[in-house]
Amino acid sequence: MKTIYLDHSATTPALPEVVQTMIPYLREQYGNASSIYRIGRESRKSVEEARRQVANLIGAEPEEIFFTSGGTEADNMAIFGVVAACGEKGKHIITTRMEHHAILHPCEQLEKRGYDVTYLNPDPKGLLRVEDIKKAIRADTFLISIMHVNNEVGTIQPIEEIGLIAREKGIIFHTDAVQSVGKIPVDVKKLGVDLMSLSAHKIYGPKGIGALFIRRNTTIDPFIFGGGQERKRRPGTENVPGIVGFGKAAEIAQRDLPADMERITYLRDKLIDGILSSIPYTQLNGDRQKRIPNNANFSFRFVEGESLLLMLDMKNIAASSGSACTSGSTDPSHVLLAMGIPFEIAFGSLRFTLGKENTEEDIDYVLKVLPLIVERLRAMSPTTIQGQNGGDNKKEGTLCTTR
Amino acid sequence: MYNEIIMDHFQNPRNVGESSRKDGVGQVGSPVCGDTTMIYLDIEESRIQDIKFKTLGCAAAIASSSMLTEMVKGKTLEEAKRVSTQDIVSALGGLPEAKVHCSVLAGDALKAAIEDYEKKQNKE
Ligand SMILES: Cc1ncc(COP(=O)(O)O)c(C=O)c1O
Ligand code: FES
């Protein structure tokens, strides 16, 4: 039986067209893009074409795109690069508690080196309050890093408004757009960001390739050193097959965006409505409106996430629970906890992220299978809805919310 | 991540539910992850005549509880007390390091159920 893949925020399958575009660069077209002979020059040409394709997708200039080994490196390059360039002038960074670890862990490193970091909490719907950012800004704040779309609950943050504030105060503004690009329109000018992280494998491109958008005249230094590639900002022989694949994926993402958004939103809404109406003691996590088209994140009371995932896996459904990127960990998601969702609710969370290849039959199948799985796990649970086993009946009843 | 024995006990857990008399009941929450296991014992002449469990937890917690109930069913309380976490892990054919606490949870729930029974006995 085929796998019903509903974990597109973890990664996506590379599209056949993307793979086709890459293959020559792994075989006959293997030249180093810095070499002056023909196969070198052709690699260079293809890299620059891909740079244009990626730039187009986010409304940037090709010279503002710097290829990296992925989203994680782009995030690190943004944070450490700005620190290297303006560390003397500033001491304070503002970010959020719902960031990906690729931002949180670099910030923790900086705290060890004596920087101050303010971690803002989102509201219970997973949205940042612009007011909180205003209040957090200090005279020595030199960097704000806030994700465009959260990877777990799919909420879209008010980047444009934050961009205006950052610009007014002259603070460098970075956004991790790994989860928004290719899912909603993204335009660096409109958003007013100086730095933006991208990753190819979330948009049906290959793994291990990404980019950092650096607005012209942004104060940032390299954080690794070597050859002169990527205009010395990111040295190392270019991953030509990866870059070319990323470019193709970006071009397709731009072409397909309106149609994909419409189709996937329809399927996602069917999934959300179906689950909320068929499984009691269930809530949708994250704002229902301000979210990307493909994300549905639920909490089921009296159920634990890992058991749920394994049961779904036995039915050939791939989804995720907690933070996808820290595999093997069953800690409740730091994002849900930052939203103020109680531990026992965060504990039974499940994220479905839809993609291009999902069909209505896939959603119907999930809607058929999931209620039975939740019911089965709840029957096994010592704290049940009826509170039969000494659980506080009334308290349980009021704690639970639907919708 | 999990071997076949664990997956089997997870998919087809043995002795799920509540025993009929509930002579001893133990509920333990894991301080590590918040998972909860409950064990119910029916005791006949210091022997575990029936044992059932309920778990709100990960696959390893469910499999550990299931395995433990099979291991101690029919044993005397003294024998059951001697079953260690290591015994559960071995019977399951090994657990990933981060999941060893799940077997501790099952073992602790059994101990709590036996203590509950003994306390009730002493009162009578
Ligand atoms: C928001 C966000 N940032 C960064 C990353 C890391 O990207 P990559 O896997 O390309 O390193 C991810 C994906 O895991 C992500 O979801
Ligand atoms: S993760 Fe805690 S009991 Fe398994």
Put simply, the count of helices of chain B is 5
- CATH level-two architecture of chain B: Alpha-Beta Complex
Taking Cα atoms only, what radius of gyration of chain A do you get, to the nearest Å? 22 Å
Q: Main beta sheet of chain A, described?
A: 7 strands, mixed
Share of residues in helices of chain A = 40-55%
Number of strands of chain B: 3
Main sheet specs of chain B:
3 strands, antiparallel
What is the CATH class designation of the largest domain in chain A? Alpha Beta
Task: Describe the global form of chain A.
Answer: globular
**What percentage of the residues of chain A does DSSP assign to strands (E)?**
5-15%
Strand order of the largest sheet of chain A: 2-8-7-6-5-3-4
SSE class of chain A: alpha/beta
Distance between the termini of chain B: 47 Å
Total tally of structural domains of chain A:
2
Explain this structure:
With 403 residues, chain A is α/β, with parallel strands linked by helices. Chain A has two domains: 4-9 and 257-386, Aspartate Aminotransferase, domain 1, CATH 3.90.1150.10; 16-253, Aspartate Aminotransferase, domain 2. Chain A is 42% helix and 13% strand. Chain A has helices at 16-26, 38-58, 71-86, 101-112, 130-136, 159-169, 188-191, 240-278, 305-314, 334-338, 343-346, 360-380, 393-399, and strands spanning 4-5, 65-68, 92-96, 116-120, 141-145, 172-176, 195-199, 210-214, 282-284, 295-300, 317-318, 349-353. In chain A, the strands form three sheets. A seven-stranded mixed β-sheet of chain A has the order 2-8-7-6-5-3-4, sandwiched between helices. A three-stranded antiparallel β-sheet of chain A has the order 9-10-12. Chain A has a two-stranded parallel sheet with strand order 1-11. In chain A, strand 6, helix 7 and strand 7 (195-199) form a beta-alpha-beta unit. Chain B has 124 residues and is α+β, with helices and mostly antiparallel strands. Helices cover 47% and strands 20% of the residues of chain B. In chain B, helix 4 packs across helix 5 (100-123). Chain B has helices at residues 4-11, 59-72, 77-81, 85-91, 100-123, and strands spanning 24-29, 36-44, 47-56. The A-B interface holds A 302-304, 306-307, 310, 314, 328-332, 343-344, 347, 379-383, 389-390 and B 1-2, 7, 10-11, 13, 16, 18, 27, 33-38, 54-59, 61-62, 96, 98.
